[in-house]
UniProtKB/TrEMBL annotation:
Catalytic activity: a quinol + 2 Fe(III)-[cytochrome c](out) = a quinone + 2 Fe(II)-[cytochrome c](out) + 2 H(+)(out)
Cellular component annotations (GO), alphabetically ordered: mitochondrial inner membrane
Domain Rieske: 127-215
Cellular localisation: Membrane; Mitochondrion inner membrane
Organism listed in the record: Catenaria anguillulae PL171
The protein's name: Cytochrome b-c1 complex subunit Rieske, mitochondrial
Cofactor(s) demanded: [2Fe-2S] cluster
Record's bilayer topology term: Single-pass membrane protein
Textual note on the cofactor: Binds 1 [2Fe-2S] cluster per subunit.
Keyword vocabulary terms for this entry: 2Fe-2S, Disulfide bond, Electron transport, Iron, Iron-sulfur, Membrane, Metal-binding, Mitochondrion, Respiratory chain, Transmembrane, Transmembrane helix, Transport
Amino acid sequence: MSLAFAARSLARSAAAARNGSAVRSLHTTVAKASAAEMPDFSAYKKTSSAANDRNFAYFMVGSTGFLTAVAAKNTVHDFLTNLSASADVLALAKVEVDLTTIPEGKNVVVKWRGKPIFIRHRTQDEIQEAASVDVASLRHPESDAERATKPEWLVMLGVCTHLGCVPVGESGDFGGWYCPCHGSHYDISGRIRKGPAPLNLEIPEHSFTEDDKVIIG
């Protein structure tokens, strides 16, 4: 009885030993297989990270360039817009005046580009007086014919050529315009005759129409 029990115990021990060895062998085999089949991703991870960094850098450079181009375009557009004349300035680029409303021997003042324009309807005596002046004796030599394309109409910029004051009409020592600021005297043709002003009153660009109107500008 004891021999049979001992034999069975020995058989179980041997079987257990064999099973343990088999399990350990299986674990070793699995471990080796896992180690052999598992690829090394470390290099891939480094390469992928570098590629992502480059892509991000390209994206940032492209975005920055695009935003810079848009900002530059807007800046140039705003600059050109500010340089463009406004609607009210364009409206005053030319002024039309009805000459039939100005009596002979009278002045009118109109505004053009923010400056006064003197328009004088001269009498025949005034035309003859202006034409009789010796041009060579003038500080700023100009004949009356050069200044008044239609003798009865004198169109001038009403700004003193000394310091930009506005002269008074039908005044002064020569019956034309007088600047009370510093004592410049202009004759009936608007030419400087006395005082500190160096030049005659300026003649703006103007033209006469067939229906007795003058267009200034």
